[in-house]
């Protein structure tokens, strides 16, 4: 019998709400630079840490920064099956510029098939709950599977992006994903600062930003926005009274009308119907 490979132990034990070091790290890096936080995180968590990238400017800044610190940095994306053509072109640019092979995570084929067969391919336009069910299968569940293999992940969230993100910390405990660490190195950055970094370092950018887009998601759920509108106004633009979230970073709520518990029960009902 051949000797078994040793089971890999996480670099850092999984943590819970009682773990004070996460809060201490958040305080320590609140006024540090994004590069300082990334350097610390790469030293502590690599290779069991990855940057989440969907094509946004923020994610590209993080990739460029991290690559300059450690060229072996890992990057992953959620391929929902409905991404714009330009998004795939950007991932090819990442491969050519940085030598990074983006790790693609896909939804469960059978779950997608059941949902589409039951509700049609453009179900997202008919109700918030159907849209959330689509996000759940195509994005939320694949993310859970990916993060189950990591000790930490990096996101390009900024506090000024939307009301649901105004209180994010630079170092967080991700309670929704097994208590791993979530890093938001650009939390205190402005969009102008992000663009300034991109111009200074000639960072590859998504082609749709030149066509009036300010946030990139699935093709059916993203549009360009007029000048002066909030960054995420083009996401699920037909929903006038919801948080502009898919459930990956923040809960999805119908503002002022239903509790999270009530909405979760409704989403569970939609998923049951689809199965």
Shape: globular
Report the end-to-end length measured between terminal Cα atoms.
43 Å
Number of strands: 6
Give the C-alpha Rg. Answer: 19 Å
Q: Tell me, what is the CATH class?
A: Alpha Beta
Quickly give the CATH architecture: 3-Layer(aba) Sandwich
Largest sheet: 6 strands, mixed
Spell out the helices and strands N to C. Answer: HHEHEHEHHEEEHH
How many individual domains? 1
How much of the sequence lies in strands comes to 5-15%
User: In CATH terms, what is the fold-level topology?
Assistant: Rossmann fold
Derived from helix and strand composition plus strand pairing, the structural class reads alpha/beta
Helix content range: 25-40%
Strand order in the sheet with the most strands: 3-2-1-4-6-5
How would you describe the overall organization of this protein?
By secondary structure, this protein is of the alpha/beta class. It has a single domain, classed as 3-Layer(aba) Sandwich (Rossmann fold), CATH 3.40.50. It is 39% helix and 8% strand. The chain contains eight helices and six strands. It has helices spanning 20-29, 34-45, 57-69, 85-98, 109-119, 128-147, 191-201, 260-274, and strands at residues 49-52, 74-78, 103-105, 152-154, 171-174, 180-183. Strands 3-2-1-4-6-5 form a six-stranded mixed β-sheet, sandwiched between helices. The radius of gyration is 19 Å and the shape is globular.
Please describe the structure with a list of short key phrases separated by commas or semicolons.
275 residues, alpha/beta, Rossmann fold, 6-stranded mixed sheet, 8 helices, 6 strands, globular, disordered N terminus
């Amino acid at each position: 019998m051949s000797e078994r490979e040793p089971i890999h132990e996480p670099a850092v034990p999984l943590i819970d709400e009682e773990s004070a070091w996460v809060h201490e790290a958040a305080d320590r890096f609140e006024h540090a630079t994004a590069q300082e936080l990334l350097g610390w995180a790469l030293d502590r968590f690599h290779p069991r840490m990855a940057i989440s990238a969907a094509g946004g400017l923020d994610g590209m800044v993080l990739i460029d920064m991290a690559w300059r610190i450690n060229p072996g940095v890992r990057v992953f994306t959620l391929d929902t099956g409905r991404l714009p053509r330009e998004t795939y072109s950007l991932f090819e640019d990442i491969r050519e510029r940085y030598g990074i092979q983006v790790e693609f995570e896909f939804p469960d084929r059978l779950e997608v098939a059941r949902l589409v067969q039951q509700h049609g391919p453009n179900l997202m336009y008919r109700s918030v709950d159907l849209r959330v069910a689509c996000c759940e299968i195509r994005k939320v569940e694949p993310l859970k599977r990916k993060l189950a293999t990591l000790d930490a992940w990096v996101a390009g969230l900024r506090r000024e992006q939307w009301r649901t993100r105004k209180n994010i910390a630079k170092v967080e405990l991700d309670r929704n994903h097994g208590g791993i660490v979530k890093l938001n190195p650009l939390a205190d950055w402005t969009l102008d600062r992000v663009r300034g970094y991109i111009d200074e370092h000639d960072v590859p950018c998504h082609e749709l930003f030149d066509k009036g887009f300010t946030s990139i998601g699935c093709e059916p759920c993203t549009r360009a926005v007029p000048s002066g509108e909030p960054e995420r106004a083009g996401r699920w633009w037909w929903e006038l009274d919801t948080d502009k979230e898919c459930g990956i970073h923040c809960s999805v709520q119908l503002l002022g009308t239903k509790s999270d518990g009530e909405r979760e029960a409704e989403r569970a009902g939609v998923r049951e119907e689809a199965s």
